[in-house]
Amino acid sequence: MTFIYPTGSNTAHPLPLSPEYKSSIKRAPNKPLIPMRHTLSELTGPVYGHETVREGDNDLTTQHKGEPLGERIIVHGHVRDEDGRGVPNTLVEIWQANACGRYVHVRDQHPAPLDPNFTGAGRTVSDAAGYYRFVSIKPGAYPWGNHHNAWRPAHIHLSVFGHSFVSRLVTQMYFPGDPLFPFDPIFNSVPDEKARMRMVSSFDLENTKPEWALCYRFDIVLRGKNATPMENH
Amino acid sequence: MQDSVKPDGITPSQTVGPFFKYGLTPTGDYAWNDAFTNSTLTPDVSGDRVRIEGRVLDGDGATVPDAMLEIWQADAQGRYADPQDKRALPNASFRGFARCGTDKDGNYSFDTIRPGTVPDADGKPQAPHLVLAVFARGMLRHLYTRIYFGDEAGNTADPVLALVPADRRATLIAVRDAGKAVYKLDLRLQGDNETVFFDV
To answer: What family is this protein classified in (chain B) (predicted)?
Structure first.
């Protein structure tokens, strides 16, 4: 299948400069991006399959001697293209804070405990239908120095490849109904409300495992649609 | 399995944040293994081996110690290790992808091979280049740019470099260290000599 990647789809993304998010002020280019037609260099992308992932890499609760503290969760969904088709065999990497809102990263100084049974990193490969699944614990909210009383809503970081180098996506999955949404400049850097809500997972009672774990569904939609003669390049 | 429903748009990007290292570039510092390294080299790879290195700098000229860079490139014959590149099979195990986190002083480096010539959308040759994606705290979406090679005669006819104002082209061209297979290029996210980024 041949895909095209209309640049119009990029309007869902935040603008580089989002002054409420202070770190963007010195790291956003001042000059406009230069448009160019996609060549083979943009239309192809790295292919990484199951050989990249070890058995159990998608279960963040079984990487250490004991079980991590916190609320066990299942996060699953489909990686899709813009036409809604599943994106098969694509690498999905995640990383997150522990249940207390603390990252194992050495530069995280939040005075909340580390959990010796939780690193917070995982990866998996979507199946032939684009489906992926992780088991983890629900990450905590945490403070950050952006402004007075700034707290990040609970989130899981995701990194996904897709069909080409221009479908590459790094994003964050949020949890439904988080009271911190209105106050978070990173979440609100996405200008369109409907687009913002595509970063929020939905509670999935049907796939919640009784006596074991709540389930959240999160579909990831990557750039790329079918190239047909009707499409406007 | 859910039925395929046409989505109302793509999932927006969010910053990689300051804490990605233990998940994406642990390089032995955390209890997690690396899916990728900063090298594309494989035992079977043919072509000239090169190192590309430099620093990432912000709008104040300060080094960026928490950036992540990814490269994607063709092999020495100009073929991409992707079934969508129908021309020919590349070196059997060469992938053409690598990932590098900047160090505490903002340095990055990639070990790779000098790619061959790749056609543009009209079939005209492009000068050898790498595609580069730049991620960091403060960057809500990653930026795309390219790295060309300073000692490559084909740069003057490259259709993408031609889109760039002449006085900014140098921000895309890595300069060879005399006598070594090392090319240097600093990436400036903002300000004087700001790196050219592409809207792709």
So the answer is: Belongs to the intradiol ring-cleavage dioxygenase family.
A129-143 pLDDT, tens per residue? Answer: 999 999 999 999 999
Q: Is A164 on the interface with B (CB under 8 A)?
A: yes
Please list the residues that pair with A95 across neighbouring strands. Answer: A121, A157
* Chain B hits for A34, Cβ within 8 Å: 163-164, 196-199
Distance CA B19, CA A132 (A): 23
Which residues, 6 or more positions from B50, have their beta carbon under 8 angstroms from its beta carbon?
B111, B112, B113, B114, B149, B181, B182, B183
In CATH, what number does A3-226 get? 2.60.130.10
Whether the CB-CB separation of B157 and B165 falls below 8 Å is answered with no
pLDDT at B117: 96
Q: What is the pTM of this model?
A: 0.96
- What CATH superfamily classification does B21-188 receive? Aromatic compound dioxygenase (2.60.130.10)
Q: Confirm whether A152 is a catalytic residue.
A: yes
Q: Which of A40, A171, A187 sits opposite B11 (nearest CB)?
A: A171
Q: What pLDDT score does A231 carry?
A: 46
